[in-house]
Amino acid sequence: MKHTKVRKINSGNxxxxxxxxxxxxxxKEVGSSKGNCYxxxxxxxxxxxxxxxxKKKRICLANRRKTKTVGDSQHLRDMLxxxxxxxxxxxxxYTLKIKDLRDIITESCPILGIKxxxxxxxxxxxxxxxxxxxxxxxxxxxxxxxxxKDNIIIVSLMANSIKNxxxxxxxxxxxxxxxKLYKEKGINYG
Length: 190
Ligand SMILES: [Zn+2]
Hints:
Layout: H1 4-10, E1 27-28, E2 37-38, H2 39-43, H3 50-67, H4 73-90, H5 98-104, E3 136-140, E4 152-156, H6 157-165, H7 168-184
Parallel strand pairs: 1-2
Antiparallel strand pairs: 3-4
This protein binds zinc ion (ZN).
């Protein structure tokens, strides 16, 4: 972030103004309903009103999300946030830290071996062309134990969705059944 322009506009003036919308700035203290400029910003000579500053942060975040890659900080933060919201909704434990994810994320699904990719923007769930199956996802080994360090692994969404449908025994029975059936019928299932 460059402050050159900021300092020039507000240099020597007692009353600072927002460098984006020119509104006079009043410091907003934590917990107060008054003021329009965060104290931390003001102290750091980021002279922007909260509205303009929040808008800029939203744009920055959207850009980081568009360009995030598997395992980078933004990706891990987004995974954590998703987990936190699901934990709250389902009333299950949540004690994960970003480091816990960084420690265990791999380049490919440990079950299916497919390389992890992030969903492309504008592609909806299950729509043709969407590679949602290769997305990394947090699996709670024992669902009720929630999102805790010892209870999560990162697997492809495909593996995760299969696992969540049935018990390991049932999944194995389905696999065995279809492998046999396909073989009998001479179907190549790849
Ligand atoms: Zn402003």
